[in-house]
Amino acid sequence: MQGSDTTYTRRRGEIETYFDRTAAAAWSRLTTAAPVSGIRATVRAGRDRMRATLLAQLPQDLTGLRVLDAGCGTGALAIEAASRGADVVAIDLSPTLVDLARERSPKNLKGTITYLSGDMLDPRLGLFDHVVGMDSLIHYEMPDMMTMLARLAAMSRRGVHITFAPYTPLLGAMHLAGKLFPRSDRSPAIVPHRAEKLHQAIQQDPRFEGWTLGRDHRINSRFYISHAQELVRV
User: Fold this and answer.
1) N or C: which end of the chain has fewer CB atoms below 10 A?
2) Domain that holds residue 143
């Protein structure tokens, strides 16, 4: 990623460590129907709504289409896409979460799911009809996020469907506090971005020639705030 290689690689390593070791058990519980605390319940509800939002941007019938679930976590979105006929590649940095996703995957889906642990930007994954990245870019500063988004777009024939953390005074303050008071057991900081600045950056970046901004929708579920953004190839 040229000049941003170092920051991207460092950040990716932090995320892999957190989700594969520090928080694996918590994420396993969060992504089931098991009782959780009030705060985590709002996060679970928000993530469920966001997953439904991103899936609504895809065709209802995905038969014969290839979908990349970039940052698949425990596999909920991949399973939904495969149940609609997609051939899904579900990839995540965390081998622990990928193993859990594989265990949870039902048999006899209409489509297929190939589970992988590794870098979602790996060009060896090939081309896809749709690329989905739910909360997979939310830990990166704008230059890294734009480069990641451009690489995901290069892997898609039709659409890219991602989320980002929208700037709010609360998220801005939390991001600043995370920088001032780092803790080894804390999740890698979420980096909020203003939607209008992201839109402007995409529209002005020559790497997105042939793409247009599509549907977008913000989910605010108290302790879960995320913004869905669609890019459509024209």
Assistant:
1) C
2) 2-233
For each of the chain's 234 residues, which pLDDT tens digit applies? 544 566 778 887 887 777 766 666 776 777 877 777 788 888 889 999 999 999 999 999 999 999 999 999 999 999 999 999 999 999 999 999 999 999 999 999 999 999 999 999 999 999 999 999 999 999 999 999 999 999 999 999 999 999 999 987 665 555 444 443 344 445 678 899 999 999 999 999 999 999 999 999 999 988 899 999 999 999
Locate 61 and state its tokens: 């019938």
pTM: predicted TM-score of the whole model, two decimal places = 0.87
The total number of structural domains that make up the chain: 1
Provide the 8-state DSSP code for 116. Answer: E
